[in-house]
Specification:
Helices cover 84% and strands 0% of the residues. It is an all-alpha fold. Helix 1 packs antiparallel against helix 2. It is elongated.
Length: 74
């Protein structure tokens, strides 16, 4: 006797897609927060590391934001 399935295949796929977009949103929020923190550090004491962090966080936030925007268009 087989046990009934907890999820259908479509529900499992939908859950995976939902978790993917949730993780992308969290990554975007983390990068954006890091960007704001780096900008504050640049304003306060302007080290070279703050400039590098701003560039890296900006590139990551732009990439993830672009992927989120293009994902919604599909």
């Amino acid at each position: 006797m087989k046990a009934p399935a907890l999820f259908s295949v479509q529900q499992f796929k939908d859950l995976c897609v939902w978790l993917f977009w949730l993780s992308a949103y969290v990554a975007f929020c983390v990068l954006f927060g890091h960007l704001l923190k780096s900008i504050w550090a640049l304003i306060v004491d302007a080290p070279v590391q703050a400039i590098a962090a701003i560039v890296a966080a900006s590139m990551g936030a732009i990439f993830i934001g672009y992927r989120l925007a293009m994902g919604e268009a599909r």
